[in-house]
Design brief:
InterPro entries: Bact_response_regulator (IPR050595), CheY-like_superfamily (IPR011006), PhyR_sigma2 (IPR053866), PhyR_sigma4 (IPR053867), Sig_resp-reg_PhyR (IPR014605), Sig_transdc_resp-reg_receiver (IPR001789). This is Response regulator. Keywords: Phosphoprotein. It holds the Pfam family Response_reg. By secondary structure, the chain is an alpha/beta fold. It folds into two domains: about 140 residues, Butyryl-CoA Dehydrogenase, subunit A, domain 3 (Up-down Bundle); about 120 residues, Rossmann fold (3-Layer(aba) Sandwich), CATH 3.40.50. The chain is about 55% helix and about 10% strand. It contains twelve helices and five strands. A five-stranded parallel sheet has the order 2-1-3-4-5, with helices on both faces. Helix 3 packs across helix 4, helix 4 packs across helix 7 and helix 10 packs parallel to helix 11. It is globular and about 55 Å long.
Length: about 270
């Protein structure tokens, strides 16, 4: 099996990580393309002593660390723009901390694997994760609309959201109900399942909501590969079913981190 064939199944999930890390589909996918171009240009540099997925993320980390300077925030002089606000927030959280959190909580890497990816020690990775969680939880509190037609999953999401200090504005099970709830009580974040009751779509519900006002969205699906192709407009934040509580918490924190309208907690 060629290297390309070995890497292909892991590309959708690398896009998920890159989008969450950058807060942008376009930027995240650009970094993934750069990593792939580096592999094609110098295949002999691809790590041979680890499994292909770990090697792929290691190559991505090399591109990220070499092209994403920590002083990025200092370049923002238009403070009223979303990009400038995201950069200002980025400056308050060590990039390594955010990477450690996403690699473990969202991508499911072990502490040992994350230490390899970040060229750090396991103890340092654990400290980075604690630092990121502490800083992010202090930064953001919001009001969350849950769009989910499975009662048990909806209850789990409500519990996770409230445990993180956020308020749940409502739980919708259909497209029409989701739009009505959003118009009645504007949320600061939307958690949306893809497939809803009565065969309606969470994607369509979100499109209707975004036509009225901007709000960060996290999609939840059992088939993430379908929304991580890099071939069309796709979600920036995506959670895979079945999900872990830590994955949902990390995604919520990251989505709010890049939202210009989120108000820091007192």
């Amino acid at each position: 099996m060629s290297l390309g064939q070995q890497l292909a199944p892991h590309l959708p999930f690398l896009r998920r990580y890159a989008r969450a890390l950058t807060g942008s589909q376009a930027e995240g996918d650009r970094y993934v393309r750069a990593a792939l171009e580096a592999i094609v240009a110098a295949p002999e540099e691809f790590p041979k002593s680890v499994d292909p997925r770990l090697g792929l993320y290691r190559m991505f980390q090399g591109i990220w660390s070499s092209t994403h300077p920590e002083e990025w925030a200092a370049s923002a002089d238009d403070g009223d723009q979303p990009e400038a606000i995201a950069r200002a927030r980025l400056a308050r959280i060590a990039p390594m901390s955010r990477q450690a959190l996403l690699l473990t909580a969202m991508e499911g890497f072990t502490t040992e694997d994350t230490a390899y990816l970040l060229e750090s020690s396991e103890d340092e990775v654990e400290k980075l994760i604690d630092d990121a969680l502490g800083e992010i939880e202090q930064q953001t509190r919001s009001r969350v609309l849950v769009i989910e037609d499975e009662p048990i999953i909806a209850m789990d999401l409500e519990t996770i959201v409230r445990d993180q200090g956020h308020e749940v504005t409502g739980v919708a099970v259909t497209r029409d109900e989701a739009v009505a709830l959003a118009m009645e009580d504007r949320p600061g974040l939307v958690l949306a399942d893809i497939q809803l009751a009565d065969d309606s779509s969470g994607i369509d519900a979100v499109k209707d909501i975004l036509a009225e006002f901007n709000v960060p969205v996290i999609f939840i699906t059992a088939f993430p590969e379908r929304l991580l192709t890099g071939e069309r407009p796709e979600p920036t934040f995506l959670i895979t079913k079945p999900f872990q509580r830590s994955t949902v918490k990390a995604a919520i924190s990251q989505a709010l981190f890049f939202d210009q309208e989120t108000v820091p907690a007192a």
